[in-house]
Amino acid sequence: xxxxxxLDRADATGLAALYLFASLVAGLALAAAGLRxxxxxxxxxxxxEVTDDGATL
Length: 57
What we know:
There is one protein chain. By secondary structure, the protein is mainly α. The protein has helices at 3-9, 13-42. It has one domain (3-42). The chain is built from 2 helices and no strands. Helix 1 (3-9) runs antiparallel to helix 2 (13-42). The protein is rod-shaped, with a radius of gyration of 23 Å. The chain starts with a helix and ends in a 15-residue tail after the last helix. The chain crosses the membrane at residues 16-37. Keywords: Membrane, Transmembrane, Transmembrane helix.
């Protein structure tokens, strides 16, 4: 059973709503941070020197 359901059954509806809101905000913030990090890593400058003598995979 989820944490929100347990809090709701214990007559802690306000606390359950706060937990749900905090989880949503934290999840969106972490998703945004992941997108930003991925974008930063994807747009790194290309290396200027080829170290494998031009071999491909």
